[in-house]
Design brief:
CATH class: Mainly Alpha
CATH superfamily: MFS general substrate transporter like domains
Number of domains: 1
CATH topology: Growth Hormone, Chain: A
Radius of gyration: 21 Å
Strand content: under 5%
Number of helices: 18
Largest sheet: none
Distance between the termini: 25 Å
CATH architecture: Up-down Bundle
Length: about 425
């Protein structure tokens, strides 16, 4: 009997981990293809031709819209995730994200319909942000709340691994397209294919998630007192300090990620003059080290603590900021590759343990809302405007100031982590 029960538990846990991994991979694929298309083609396709720099800044600004939408999505989906269940909320967020992404693939360009084109692009980008705002928190909770004692960070690393997998799928597809198509073909219709392909991936994610059972944390919270207010109001009234601490704990990972991917790709292919295929290839290689960093962080966090690993990663991130200017501007693709490897491995260290840390800051009945809001507001502070700000900093002062942006974000994360109690993981109750 014990063997049968153990096998059933193994299958249940495996299903949860696969669902959290595949779901976040699909959602981050959708999110990253926009970032890559922003760096490569969205400027001239969707914005007026005042100057190349102005077009790129406008494209980066549209990229930032999703970050403004993500806290709204976190609040909306967090409400239903805490009141109704993780599973149904995750299904809804995936459908919203996928629908907005596929619709981008059908948009007319600025030359065809004028200002209607960037307007529609921004509306759909807002929809992407709403969907992703509800995705991460639910996926992290499914994994962490299903973990046996001593395994929370390792279970929590599975939704985190969806980020590099989504990036590999997104930029790998763009690499294939830019290799197989001429520049004119890619600009005319090739860029649309990754967005249209999202419909297949979303279908796969939905099939997996419909087979899930909900987390037992929600069942447990049902026996607690009924919340006196909607979750977000209860969160801010009773758990504001934890929300602020969690928000700052997230800032560094977003700053590192979007400056070593979206900004670096745009800067490397436009201002440094590197071939698109070559630079995409370097980034695809470097993202493997982000995945490695997530795995290392997951095992280390279960041995020590998520907070300790994040503190170490933040200190390393300060150093990454200081070397960004000389390494990214070194004039050698090999040195740039080394910088991206260093930056993205550090990103894995400051990203991997978040799925274990943030849920531990909140009780079960506001955990979805609290984790999601902290994660997504931190995304605004760290990454939402990072590519646009970095472009402006480069135009006025040079790459060294972009590096200072990373270092400053890492300092904010350290300050947030220092306010997180050391016994958070010990006191975590599912």
């Amino acid at each position: 009997m014990e063997t049968v029960q153990g096998l059933a538990a193994y299958r249940r846990n495996a299903r949860v981990l696969v669902a959290s991994l595949v779901g976040t991979a699909v959602e981050f694929y959708d999110f990253y293809i926009y970032a890559t298309a922003t760096a490569l083609v969205f400027g001239p396709l969707f914005f007026p031709a005042e100057s190349a720099s102005a077009q790129q800044l406008a494209a980066y600004a549209s990229f930032a819209i999703a970050f403004l939408a993500r806290p709204i999505g976190a609040t909306f989906f967090g409400h239903f995730g805490d009141r109704v269940g993780r599973k149904s909320t995750l299904v809804a967020s995936l459908m919203l994200m996928g629908g907005a992404t596929v619709a981008i693939g059908f948009l007319p360009t600025y030359q065809s319909v004028g200002w209607l084109a960037p307007l529609l692009l921004c509306v759909l980008r807002f929809g992407q942000g709403l969907g992703l705002g509800g995705e991460w928190g639910g996926a992290a909770l499914l994994a962490v709340e299903s973990a046996p004692p001593g395994w929370r960070a390792r279970f929590g690393m599975f939704p985190q691994l969806g980020a590099p997998l989504g990036f590999l799928a997104a930029n790998g597809l763009f690499l294939i397209l830019t290799t197989c198509l001429s520049e004119a073909q890619f600009a005319a219709w090739g860029w649309r294919l990754p967005f249209l392909l999202s419909s297949v991936l979303v279908g796969l994610g939905l099939w997996i998630r419909f087979r899930l059972a909900d987390s037992h944390a929600l069942d447990a919270s049902a026996h607690a007192a009924v919340p006196k207010a909607i979750p977000v109001l209860e969160l801010f009234k009773g758990h504001l300090r934890q929300t602020v601490a969690g928000t700052f704990a997230v800032v560094a990972c977003f700053a590192i990620y979007y400056l070593t991917t979206a900004f670096a790709l745009g800067y490397g292919t436009s201002q440094l003059g590197y071939d698109r295929q070559a630079f995409l290839g370097v980034q695809l290689f470097a993202i493997l080290f982000m995945a490695a960093g997530i795995v290392v962080a997951g095992y280390a966090a279960d041995r020590w603590s998520s907070r300790a690993v994040l503190v170490l990663g933040s200190v390393l991130a300060i150093g990454v900021g200081f070397v960004m200017g000389p390494m990214l501007g070194a004039g050698s693709l090999g040195v740039i590759a080394l910088f991206l490897v260093l930056g993205l491995f550090t990103m894995g260290l400051v990203y991997g343990p978040l799925a274990a840390l943030l849920p531990q800051l909140f009780p079960a009945r506001v955990r979805y809302t609290g984790s999601s809001i902290a994660f997504n507001v931190g995304g605004i502070l760290g990454g939402g405007f990072a590519p646009a700000l970095a472009q402006g900093l480069v135009d006025k002062g040079g790459l060294i100031y972009v590096g200072f942006y990373i270092s400053g974000a890492a300092v904010l994360t350290l300050l947030g982590l220092l306010t997180v109690p050391r016994n958070t993981e010990r006191d975590f109750v599912v």
